[in-house]
Amino acid sequence: MNKLFKHLAAFALGIALAAGVGLGVSAGSKASEVKADDAVNFTLSSAADVTVSGVTASFAKASGSSAPAWYTAGLRLYTNNTFTVSSSSSIVGISINWEKQGKKDFASATADVGTYSHPVAAGVGTWTGSSNKVVFTVSSAGQLQLNTFSVTVGGGEVIDLTDIGVKATEEVAVGSTVTLSPIYTPSNANAKKTISWESLDSSIATVNASTGVVSGVSVGTARIRVNATDIGKSAICTVTVNPVPPVPVTHTIEDLYSISTTGTSVLFNGVYMGHYGTNPFQAIWFADGEYAIAVYGTSTVPSTWEVGKTVVAVSAKTAFYNGLVQVNNASFQLTSATVDTPVVYDFTGTETTANQLSRKVSLSGTVTALSAAITKATDTTVTVTMDNGNAVKIFLKKNVFTDEQIAEYVDTFVVDQYVVVTGFLGYYKSGQTFGSAYNPGDFQVLCPTIVSTEKYTAEKFATDFTDATTPVCSRAESERLTGLQSIWSELSAKYSALDSTERANLVSAEASSNVKNAVARYDYICGKYNTSEHKVLEEFIEGATIVYNSLFVQLSNNNNNAMITTIVITSIASIALLGVTLFIKKRKATH
């Protein structure tokens, strides 16, 4: 009997082991397996999230689209709406019964993971893969309708979390945030992953219990703990909270000429004034008021930047090369800051001080020599003898100009040709150190722009000034100042093209009536819109002390004059008509 009992017990144990029932013997943990190919069926009745057998379906709207809505016919999904299926177990298949929504186009849909096949018309969409979450997104055209779908949960292994960690240290500034992330062990754990966050020093830093976002409260160190509540383990990150970093000092460009230590970090605002070389540029020029500076190195600027208009914040480090103050390794950002309209400095050829360098300059004179033929592959120095008798060298660096620019230089920089040029002032004496003496004649003009090949005279300026301001001065008073501001810097640049002789002719008592009228108008405009405390328009004509004549007043009073003329003509016509009427009556009476 005992022998038979032992045989039966052994048989039962074998069946139990074959069935995977442990009976105290570990034949693979039963907690690490789930049943394969479990299908979970959904039938919707609203747009609310729904959970069936541990599988959750949720529906959401995208920015700018309508929210998913439930109608009698089913759940309506609009453009860019999302349909999310999630489960703690691995999802291996989803079958969706898509329906067409009324007369709307049948939309397409995509899945963020796995392989998804969407029907071209109402029908079944099929997804396969292995993931704990699948997000379907409706396309940007059409709509979809949904009532039923099924989710297949796979037989993938459930891997329990065994430990939790977090990075040892982190830093954040007071008033700023940083996000901590948990470190799971094993990294592919998919179960028992419930975690929470807490601050052990909340006066220094706080943390969002669910997201791990740490906020700096005051200077010091704080311990931030992550807790794995399912397994009873935790880890700590020490967060250092730093003071708010100081706001960097914004320099003027003039300040940069007094910073002799190279490598100093600086910030300044400037108007984009142009570039030297082809994109990416060898140098980019910025100006604020009377001063300009070059940013060197391989840099690019957006095509939307406008010369003389776009204001940029420049963050860079100071540099010094052959007497030229510059900045390197810059980053650019458009800024709402305002800077003065850049002034074109009139180069004389007698400059000796460092703060003249990099400024935008204007000069006029006759080309007297070229160091070499002008080509794209050759460094060429063009000597110009200016109207005041001093000489200046214009430097054309090889391989930095476009073919079109080179062609213009070849046509313009010809010996005995008169030129009016603007550019930026540099220095070419090798080995020059900051603050040492600068020698007249060692300056050069970089990045030249040809303004004209004819001498600009006081008569031409007067005509240009009158032509530009006449339509503006004829506007209503409320619109006049805005119009003048829009043309003023261009007029100032034209004035800069005049040499000293022509500037003297502009304010001479012997000037023509055309010139006097133009200067009178200028004088009137400046007197009207500028005060001793605030100059709305930059004054640029030297010696413009002529009392304005009647020309501008006449333009300002055109409407009044027209009205007076109309009244006079109407009165004359009325008197004439009255006389004719009396004459006719008198003739009738005599007959």
- Number of helices, counting only DSSP H or I runs of 4 residues or more: 9
Counting DSSP E segments of at least 2 residues, the number of strands comes to 31
Roughly how many Å is the radius of gyration? 42 Å
Named at the architecture level, the CATH assignment of the largest domain is Beta Barrel
Gross geometry: elongated
Poorly predicted regions are: 1-36, 546-568
CATH top level assignment of the largest domain: Mainly Beta
Number of domains: 4
| pLDDT averaged residue by residue | 81
| Class by alpha and beta content | alpha+beta
CATH superfamily of the largest domain: Nucleic acid-binding proteins
CATH topology of the largest domain: OB fold (Dihydrolipoamide Acetyltransferase, E2P)
* Residue share in β-strands: 35-45%
Terminal Cα span: 170 Å
How is the main sheet built? 10 strands, antiparallel
Can you tell me about this structure?
This protein folds into four domains: 38-153, Jelly Rolls, CATH 2.60.120; 163-242, Immunoglobulin-like; 250-452, OB fold (Dihydrolipoamide Acetyltransferase, E2P); 458-556, no CATH class. The strands form six sheets. Strands 1, 2, 3, 4, 5, 6, 7, 8, 9 and 10 form a ten-stranded antiparallel sheet that branches. It has a five-stranded mixed beta barrel with strand order 21-22-23-25-24. The chain has a five-stranded mixed barrel with strand order 27-28-29-31-30. The model is unreliable at 1-36 and 546-568 (pLDDT under 50). Strand 20, helix 2 (253-256) and strand 21 (265-276) form a beta-alpha-beta unit. With 591 residues, it is α+β, with helices and mostly antiparallel strands. The protein has helices at residues 2-18, 253-256, 403-412, 458-473, 477-496, 500-506, 513-529, 550-556, 558-590; strands spanning 38-43, 50-52, 55-60, 69-71, 74-77, 82-99, 109-111, 115-117, 123-138, 144-153, 163-165, 169-173, 177-179, 183-185, 195-199, 205-207, 213-216, 220-228, 233-242, 250-251, 265-276, 281-288, 291-299, 311-321, 324-334, 345-346, 360-370, 380-386, 391-396, 418-427, 443-452.
